[in-house]
Amino acid sequence: MNAPPPAPDPASRPPARRPVLVVAVAALVLAVLVATTAVFVWKRRDAPTTTKSSSEVTVSVFLCTRTAANPKCGRTNATAQQKAEVETELKRMPGVRKVEYESFEEAYERFKKVFADRPDMLRSARLGDIPDSYRVRVAGDREAAALQGSMRGRPGVDQVTIQPRPAAGARRGPFSGT
C-alpha cells in the first residue's frame, strides 16, 4: 500500500505576493489623490471662469503623467510631440480665444504654495505628479463642450474639465490671477 503524500509544510511555501499587492494599491491610491488634488487646485485657481465677456468659459486640458490613473496614459508622461499636437489642435478650434500652457514644474510650485500649511498634502506629491496642462478660454458653453469632446481620448491627454461658472456676485478666489 502506498502512503498518502505528506501535507505541505506552510513554512516551506514561497512568500506570498501580498506585499507587492499592498504597494501597488498604495501607489494607485497616491496617484488618484494627486490627480484629484490637481483638479481641485485648478478649479480653485480658475474661479471665476468668466472674463471680460460673461459668456467665456475656461476648459482645462490635463496631460498624461506617469502617475495618471487613466489607462490610456500608459503610466508615461505626455511626449513633446503629443503636447505640440494638442496645442496646435487647441489653437485651431473654433471659438478658442486664449490658450495658456502650465508646465508640471510650474504646477508643482503653485501646489507647494497653495498647500504650504498642509504638510500631509505636500508629502503626497512629488515633482512630476501634478500634470502640465493647457487652460483654454472659449467663447461659450457650446465651444467648451466641443473642445472637451475633441480632446478626450487624444494621445497624451489625461483629463479635460469644463470649469464651472461662479454664482453671480461671487468673489474671485486666490487662484484667479487677481
Automatic annotation (TrEMBL):
Write down the InterPro entries for this protein, in alphabetical order. FtsX (IPR004513), FtsX_ECD (IPR040690)
In the record, biological process GO terms are: cell division
In this chain, the stretch annotated as Disordered covers: 147-178
Which is a Pfam family this sequence falls into? FtsX_ECD
A cellular-component GO term for this protein: membrane
Organism domain of life:
Bacteria
FtsX extracellular domain residues are: 57-160
Q: Where does the sequence pass through the membrane?
A: 20-42
What keyword terms does UniProt attach to this protein?
Cell cycle, Cell division, Membrane, Transmembrane, Transmembrane helix
Annotated protein name in UniProt: Cell division transport system permease protein
Q: Which organism is it from?
A: Actinomadura namibiensis
